[in-house]
């Protein structure tokens, strides 16, 4: 179900000191942004915040009011620094306790009751009103509170949780993109590129320089909801570049 | 110069649609967080925001008031989607024009005046009052406005810009860390780990599960400003784990 006229927005909240200290390089933002884009949900902001209750609660309440969807990653494991579930309960002003279905799944998974430790039982705690998000990797579930989805931080688990719940999302029109690569530097193509952007107001044109095989290269990315428009703009762009004696080819991902 | 009693904070602002669309995986947060940590500057938040003027201006004004330092990456190239410099001028309520020193450096760099195109001249524009940040890679400078430092988005350039200006920062006490790795799962060590955290309130203990060589492994990271305390806590932690028949070793990065 989607409303073609509506732009559906999302914010990603990465909760974890290990990203802010530089110990770990986040990959959940890129994964979720890519997957959400396919569903017509546009990530408009991503924030990395520390495992500090006041910060998590305040940030969560700010972004869940501003965006259609919020996705959190991190902080739902069994150790003392896993405070996300409690913070979400506090942000929503509800209690938190063991979810019977979560307990049942984890009891079955661990088998021996001695292995289902009190620490692991903490992972069965869900804010009241929360709906479980399946965890096909390591069982302990994530959960949904209204428009907020809470995932684990480990990429493999976060990705599996997203795949298991994505049918619940109501997206808008998916954004598609076309990429033209050229050997002309940005400083040479900037003017005709800006003119093209003015003629195609419904297309978002981005310019991303990089080094490829040791040589400078620029990726010109056209993004929008109407692929036919993107195709027309891409052809026009390649003709312009070739008219300036540059190389241009469409790069298909 | 540093004041050992003060906690110096920073926010990283990543400006760019290409990160929010999932096209590009950011690496500047990890690099800057690691380098700032060495200088005793703690990154307390990182945000990824789109190339939208109102968003950049509002976010910048919020975070420059809240944190000691702000570092922005992205949006200072020569193309139409490079709007960061103008947004910063607007946020500070000042004008923007060509900086004579920037023009001089770029004139020298490009040599042939035909190559110093109007688009490239845009990269010499600096908000009034801005102090240049050197760019040893591709010449076009970044700049500093009070506590806000503006870098390019390309990692190689952002990293060189940071190295060229880091002597301007006044940090606090550097945070150091020690890492203990174990084969015991989080759900088994969570209780003694939480007890250790309570005994070492001045040490920030984080627990990060991962897969190493196909086997589950947990990194227990002790962070703080007093390395002797970290060493004592690490020894205590390893003894606890070995007392539970687990493997424990300090991992030196």
UniProtKB/TrEMBL annotation, chains A, B:
Domain of life the protein comes from: Bacteria
Lineage: Bacteria, Pseudomonadati, Pseudomonadota, Alphaproteobacteria, Hyphomicrobiales
Ranges where the MoaB/Mog domain occurs: 11-173
Pfam families the UniProt entry points to: FLAD1_M, MoCF_biosynth
Name the UniProt record assigns to this protein: Competence/damage-inducible protein A
Stretches of the chain forming a coiled coil according to its record: none
Native source species: Reyranella humidisoli
């Amino acid at each position: 179900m989607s409303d073609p006229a509506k732009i559906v927005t999302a914010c990603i909240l990465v909760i974890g000191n290990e990203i802010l200290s530089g110990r770990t390089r986040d990959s959940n933002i890129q994964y979720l942004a890519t997957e959400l884009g396919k569903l017509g949900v546009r990530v408009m902001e991503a924030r990395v915040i520390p495992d500090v209750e006041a910060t998590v609660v305040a940030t969560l309440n700010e972004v869940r009011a501003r965006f259609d969807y919020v996705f959190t990653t991190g902080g739902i494991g069994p150790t003392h620094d896993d405070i996300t579930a409690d913070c979400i309960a506090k942000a929503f002003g509800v209690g938190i306790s063991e979810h019977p279905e979560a307990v049942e799944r984890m009891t079955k998974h661990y088998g021996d009751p001695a292995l289902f430790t009190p620490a692991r039982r903490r992972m069965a705690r869900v804010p009241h009103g929360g709906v479980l998000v399946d965890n096909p990797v390591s069982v302990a579930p994530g959960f949904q509170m209204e428009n907020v989805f809470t995932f684990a931080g480990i990429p493999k688990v976060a990705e599996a949780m997203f795949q298991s719940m994505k049918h619940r999302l109501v997206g808008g029109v998916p954004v598609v993109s076309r990429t033209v690569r050229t050997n002309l530097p940005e400083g040479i193509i900037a003017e005709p590129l800006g003119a093209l952007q003015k003629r195609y107001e419904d297309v978002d044109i981005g310019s991303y320089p990089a080094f490829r095989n040791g040589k400078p290269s620029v990726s010109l990315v056209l993004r929008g909801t109407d692929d036919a428009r993107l195709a027309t703009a891409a052809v026009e762009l390649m003709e312009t570049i070739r008219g300036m004696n540059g190389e241009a080819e469409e790069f298909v991902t």
